[in-house]
Amino acid sequence: MYLLGFDVVKHYLAKSWSLPVLTIGIISFAIAHFLFTALKRTLEYRADTLHGREHGCELPPELPKRWPLGVDRIKELWDSNADGRLLAFLCSIARDYEPRNMLCQHLLIGPRAFHVLHPKNVEALLSTNFKDYGFGVRPSVFAPLLGNGIFTQEGAAWKHSRELLRKQFVRAQYQDNRCFHEHVGNLINCLSDGHVDLQPLFFNLTLDVATDLLFGRSVYSLRADIDQAADNREFAESFNVAQEGLAKRFRLAPFHFIYNPSAFRKACRNVHMFVERYIREQGFMDKATGDDDKAPESENATQQDSASWFIRQVAQESATETDLRDQLLNVLLAGRDTTACCLSWTLRLLVRHPAVMERLRHEVQTVMGDLTSPTREQIRAMPFLASVVKESLRLYPPVPLNNREAVRTTILPTGGGPDGTRPIMVRKGEMVVFSQYVNSRRKNIFGQDADNFRPERWETGELNDVGWGYFPFIGGPRQCLGEDFALMEVSYTIVRLLQTFRTIELPVGEKVEPVGAERQVLTLVLSSADGCKVAVKR
Ligand code: HEM
C-alpha cells in the first residue's frame, strides 16, 4: 500500500503541472476535513442539547468571578496552593453551595469542569455511570514511571489487570500480620525517648512494607543508618524523586509534557532497572508457578514464601518483564504514600485529642493484655480503633481531590437549575471533579460538627446512611484494591506504637490549630506541611 502511494506521488511530481495541483489538492482536503469536523461537532452538540432537554437537564450556577475568564479565581487557587491551604479554599467555595451540594465552574483554559458534592452525583460518577467516564490525560502524565499498569489503564486492559491483582489481594487478606512485624519493629527501633517527626518515618515504613509485599524483597529504608544495601538506597531515593516528578506533571495536567527534566528521567530509569534486575535475578518470568506453590495462608509457608508469592502470581499472567514491572510499580505507587499519609494524620489527630488517645490505649490494653504482635482477629476486636482510623480518613483522605473526564455525553442526577434539583448534562470531554476532603466538611452530610475530630460519630449509628458521602477508597468498579491491607497496616502500626510507648503526646510549643486550618502539602496525596511531631516515652 505504502509503495503504491509513493509511486502515485512520484508520478504526479514528475509532471510540470503536478506541484500546484498537489498543493491545491492538499489545501482542499484540509478545508474539507475542517468543515466535516466542524459540522460533525455541531450536529453532536445539537443532539446532546436535545438529549439534555428531553431529560430536563439544566446547568448549575457558575462560580462567581470578578475578572474576565475567572482569572481572579485562578489566582486565588494558585495563592492558596502556595500557602498550603488549597483545600480550605475549595471548602470555602463549597460552603456557598451548601443547600444544593453542587457547583459548576469554568476553567480559564480547557473544557468546563463540574465540581460535584452531592452523594447522588458521586455515585453516578463512580458507580452507576462509571462507563461514561475516563482518566483523561492521567495515563500519559504517569507513563514515564508507571508505564502500563492498573493505575493508568482503562477498558479491557484495566479489567484484565484488576482481575489479576484482585485475586492476589483476596488471598492476601488471609495472611497473618507477619508482613508488618519486622518493619514496624524497625520503625520502633528508630525512636528513642524525646521529640520526633513521625511523618518521614511513616513514608519509609510504608515503602519497606510495600516492597516486601510486592517484590518479595524490602528495600529497608528504615535501616538506612544501619545496614541498608546501596542498591536499595538508590531505589528508595529514585522512587521518591520520580514520584515528586509525577506530582508536578499531574498539576500541569494537559501541559504535563513540559516537565521532563533529566533528573526525573534518570530516577524513572533507576527504578525500572532495579525492578527489572530483580525480576531477572529471581527468574520470575521463567519459572512457571503452579498449584504446588505454597500460598501465604498455607501452614507450611515460610516468611519468604509469603513474601515472593505476590510477584510470582502476577508474573504467571504477565506477558513480558516490562508488563510485570509496570504492574508492581503501579501498586507500589497506589499503596505507599496513601498509607503513610493516613498514619501521619491519625497520629497528628491523636496527640491533639488526648481523651481519644486515652480511650484507644484502654481498648488496646484490654484486647492485647501482655501480648505483642496483634493478629488480624485481635485488631478486628478493636472497634474504637476502626472508628479512629475511619474518622481520620474522613477528615484527611490521603487522596483528597480527584477527577474524571466524560468519554461520552452523560447525565449527573441532581444539582442543576435554579432550585438545584434538576439533572445536569456533562458533555463529552468535560471534567468532573470530586473531593472527599470537601465533602467531609459538609454539614448537611456529617452534621453541625462536621469539622471536628469525633470518632464516636461512627459508633452511634448517625452515619448508617452516609453512603456515597464517605469514599476515601472511592468505590464502584475502581474501588481501591488495597483497602483491607492498608487498614491492617495502619491499625497494626498504631497498636504497636501505643504498646511500646507509655506516652505519645504533643511536644510542648507545638501548634494546636483547628482541624483543617494547618498548612498542608498537596501532591498526588495530602500530607502535613509541618510533619507529625510527637514526644514519645517508653
Ligand atoms: C489508606 C490508604 C489508601 C487509600 C486512602 C487509598 C485510596 C485509593 C483511591 C482513592 C483509589 C482510586 C484512585 C482513582 O481511581 O482515581 C485507589 C486505587 C487503588 N489502590 Fe488504594 N488506597 C490506599 C492504600 C492502598 C494500598 C496499601 C494498596 C496496595 C498495596 C492500594 C492499591 C490500590 C490499587 C491497585 C488501586 C487501583 C484500583 C483500580 O484502579 O482498579 N491502595 N486507592
UniProtKB/TrEMBL annotation:
Essential cofactor(s): heme
Residues reported in the UniProt entry to bind heme: 480
Record-linked Pfam families: p450
Record keywords, A-Z: Heme, Iron, Membrane, Metal-binding, Monooxygenase, Oxidoreductase, Transmembrane, Transmembrane helix
Gene3D superfamilies linked: Cytochrome P450
Origin superkingdom: Eukaryota
Bilayer-crossing regions: 17-36
GO molecular function, one term: heme binding
Membrane among keywords: yes
CDD domains listed in its UniProt record: CYP52
Family classification: Belongs to the cytochrome P450 family.
Protein's recorded name: Cytochrome P450
Source species of the chain: Lasiosphaeria hispida
